[in-house]
Amino acid sequence: MIKYDQILDIPQNIIKSKIEEFIIEDMPDGDKTSDPIFDNNEVTTALFQAEDDLVLSGTILLKHFFDESFKIETINKDGDFIKNGEIFAKITGSTKEILSKERIILNLMQRMSGIATMTAKYVSIAKPFGVRILDTRKTTPGLRIFEKYSVAVAGGQNHRYNLSSGILIKDNHIKAANSITAAINKIKSKNFNLPIEIEVENDDQIKEALKCGVDGLLLDNYSPDELYKVMDLIRNKLNNKEVFVEASGGINLANLNEYVPTGVDAISSGALTHSVKSANIHLEIE
User: What is the pLDDT of residues 110-122, one digit of tens each?
Assistant: First the structure.
């Protein structure tokens, strides 16, 4: 079965590089509000508090925003369920620096926790059926690693991280190559040592792809009834028990329970990252 590397941690060099980028964007010439109000030696404690029930993501970033003079206490870890009103982290240090970086930190944590919260809802429906919930590459430019991390800590699974980490032949590849067989044979000739997954639209394409020896099938925009029939074709009539089968297209929280019993191995949803509502989190000076 196809399974890609899971992003359960974020390299420190990437976090630091991104934080530098965000700080330059938000205060290219200092903080014209906080700088004149507070002296460098003024110290305060700030509390991070949930304003919704949520699944937390982003606490691993906090220590990278501040130097060793700050005291950072994380009461909860990423992936934890937090109730509305709960305080999950505290920071003590320069008042000026905390207030200057407040919005950047909150923007990231709200976005990441929104994704984690949504993912956890999908997983709770799919898990009893042994179905994996996968993300996609439909991520915010520049934030992919943060967003895919948030999916993983909430119990979802990461699909391929980028175009270099996995092979997924889609409808336009097939059209441009003139056939499924041509596309697969050209890829196999390169010996990338990566699993090959292909998007299929009908029974004939499924049969052709399996004949070529693919590792996975992406069934896009199939209805639940159609999936039951296709899974019977793949597992029983064609006697293929090992190929990885992923369903995608138009699947959301409202209809997910109709798809999870169909026998597919995984369901992928771009909505986990491209349509999610940010969680409500605020920072309060103690």
Answer: 999 999 999 999 9
Q: Which residue of the set 103, 127, 186, 211 is catalytic? A: 103
Residue type (1 letter), 253: L
Q: What is the CATH number of domain 127-274?
A: 3.20.20.70
Q: Which residue has the tokens 């003024």?
A: 42
Fold of 12-122+277-285: Aldehyde Oxidoreductase; domain 3 (3.90.1170)
Closest CA to 247 of 142, 161, 131, 163: 131
User: Which residue in the list 199, 208, 246, 265 is annotated as catalytic?
Assistant: 199
Query: Which parts of 128-254 are beta strand (E)?
Result: 132-134, 167-169, 196-200, 216-220, 244-248
pLDDT at 15 over 90: yes
Helix, strand or coil, per DSSP, at residue 252: coil
Structural domain boundaries of the chain? 12-122+277-285, 127-274
220 flagged as catalytic: yes
- The tokens of 117 are what? 């919260």
Residue 267 contacts residue 259 (beta carbons within 8 Å): yes
**pLDDT for the residue numbered 211:** 96
pLDDT digits (tens, 9 = 90+) for 116-144: 999 999 999 999 999 999 999 999 999 99
Choose, from 80, 201, 215, 220, the residue flagged as catalytic.
220
Catalytic residue among 3, 90, 121, 138: 138
Based on the residue annotation, tell me whether 138 is a catalytic residue of this protein: yes
170 annotated active-site: yes
Query: Which entry of 16, 170, 237, 277 is annotated as an active-site residue?
Result: 170
